[in-house]
Amino acid sequence: MIESDHPTQRLTGKVIVVTGAARGQGAAEAAALTRAGAQVVATDVRPEGDCRRLDVTSESDWAELAADLRKTYGHVHGLVNNAGVIQRDRLGAVRPEDFAHVHAVNATGPLLGIQHLAPLMPPGSSIVNVGSSAALTGYYPVAYTASKWALRGVSKVAAMELGPRGIRVNTVHPGYIETEMTAAATPAFRETTIRETPLGRSGTVDDIAPLVVFLLSDESAFITGAEIPVDGGFTAHGGVKSISDAMRPGTPDTQDAP
User: Fold this and answer.
1) Does the keyword Iron-sulfur apply (predicted)?
2) Of 202, 206, 197, 200, nearest to 243 (Cα)?
3) What is the number of other CB atoms lying within 10 angstroms of the CB of residue 191?
């Protein structure tokens, strides 16, 4: 559990669960939510620091978390489905078992989180699903791209189904964000991606976290079912094809992807 040092901020009194919070984007989101006054329950499959262990693909882990939250707090006011994995194989190479694993983490995990935590949510609560610019394009790592498209569907249905209960569900679509996940990309891949980004730079975790805070706050009380790219304009002009072409066999690296 992460304690707040700012009890007068806009998320005071709200209990918010963040998955994949041990490092990178999830850690930044958890920290920003804490600064805004929330009681953050940080989780990760590889727990570090204040994180509680949670395998998002495990229904029993979610059930145990929900029971503990009910006992400790009584309610949950927010969920950030941030945990995710990438698999970089292209269409002709991806194995069914890898395809299934990526979907289990990136799409089924958020579904399980919603199923188990939504019953604890009072009106005014908010769920933020973390998608990807891949979910808005035909991006070439097929398992990852398909899983993020699936998450879009989960989000839309959840917004419709939970709306009558006063629970909002929105999706944030990060572009190329500087994290451990993207650190393995070749310089050529990074440079090509930035060339396709109108703002001319990669993003940082601090470009994402403030939006997550806003979507979990009462300031976004009439926003649900929305999809918000945070990608420097990358998906606005359909530039993914040129990146895909640049990464085809015969180029320095065909396996990198954000």
Assistant:
1) no
2) 197
3) 12
Torsion of CA 79, 35, 134, 238, to 10 degrees: 130
Type of residue found at 158:
A
Structure tokens given for 103 = 């979907």
Task: Identify the three-state secondary structure at position 211.
Answer: helix
DSSP secondary-structure letter at 23? Answer: S
Q: Extract the tokens encoding 29.
A: 């989101």
Which residues are catalytically annotated? 144
Query: Is-contact 131 156, C-beta < 8 A?
Result: no
- Identity of the amino acid at 238: G
The distance of Cα 159 from the centroid of its chain, to the nearest Å, equals 16
User: What's the CATH class of domain 15-183+204-238?
Assistant: alpha beta
- The string of DSSP codes covering 67-121 is HHHHHHTS---EEEE---------TTT--HHHHHHHHIIIIIHHHHHHHHHGGGP
| Structure token digits, residue 215 | 């979507």
Q: What confidence tens digit (pLDDT) does each residue in 138-194 have?
A: 999 999 999 999 999 999 999 999 999 999 999 999 999 998 777 777 788 888 889
